[in-house]
Amino acid sequence: MKHFQLLCLGLFKHPLRLHVQLRVVFRGMLVAVGVLLCFQAMANTSRLERVLAAKELRACIWTEYYSISYRNPKTRELSGIDITITQELARELGVKIKYVESNFAQLYESLEQDRCDIATHAIGITPERQARLQFSQPYLKSDLFAITLKNKEGLQNWNSLDQPGRVIAVAAGTVMEGVMVKSLKKAKLLKVQAPGTREQEVLSGRADAFMTDYPYSLRMKELTDWAAVIPAPNTMPTTEYAYAFAKGDDSLSSRVNSFLSLIKKDGRLLRYAKQHKLEPIVLLKP
Question: How far is CA 240 from CA 122, 193, 209, 272, in A?
Fold first, then answer.
């Protein structure tokens, strides 16, 4: 305070210096007020309004998800039902689509830290995720599948998985992790973190099988010559897939729900599902 008083005394002894200093202070105050008003305006703007104003929809994807949001390692091109749907959604919104690479282990932080506006890599709806995120209406529904080596001794059916000495791999953060934590009684569960892959664990012998869903099982059938696919029995839970949003603003999720209802009704969703070989798991009811 003493230093501030001395400064003021010096300024008043030199009026010209006081005039210059006051102009500087006044300009600084204007900038500060402008910044504050900008922040207040942003806080009062809905997510949908920000997307439309920026003319850009940021969509998180997992580029390893075959038939969903898959990046071809040779051509680097993206394909899958969620790529098709989000491109069509962006077109109807009149904005560009910007894909942000993510995965299930980064799902919460990607949305809650505003890295993307929407997560569009077939997010399985679970009570744990619903506690932190908003979801659109579901558009796919999948059973569980186990992937193991062809002709692996003693492992040809579902009942042979949960046995002493077995190691079952899951990708960390996926629906399969939660399901297998609850269902495995005898086998050991191996949670695989990126950049590791479940395939590597099985091929190396560190795991006997890994758990996945219908879309990823297609990848194993079509892109490998070593994988055997074991479907889960009807007693195992199924999972509905939707798009996810950060909580607190339902403007974008409401618009996406309207869009999903429309493409279910007009036949586009079924056409997209057939295009990407997902017709057996598509949900067509709003």
Answer: 9, 23, 23, 17
For residue 195, whether the previous peptide bond is cis, meaning omega lies within 30 degrees of 0, is yes
Element (H, E) at 48: helix 47-54
Asked whether the predicted pLDDT for residue 103 surpasses 60, the reply is: yes
Phi-psi region of 88 (alpha: psi -120 to 50; beta: other; left: phi over 0): alpha
The widest CA-to-CA distance across the chain, in whole angstroms, is 95
pLDDT 10s digits, 42-98:
457 999 999 999 999 999 999 999 999 999 999 999 999 999 999 999 999 999 999
Q: Are 143 and 86 in contact (CB under 8 A)?
A: no
In this prediction the pTM is: 0.82
How far apart are the two ends of the chain, measured CA to CA in Å? 66
Q: Are 158 and 187 in contact (CB under 8 A)?
A: no
Side chain identity at residue 153, one-letter code: E
pLDDT over threshold 60, residue 32: no
Find all residues with CB under 8 Å of 241, minimum gap 6, and list them.
Answer: 122, 123, 124, 125, 138, 139, 140, 141, 142
The one-letter amino acid at 151: N
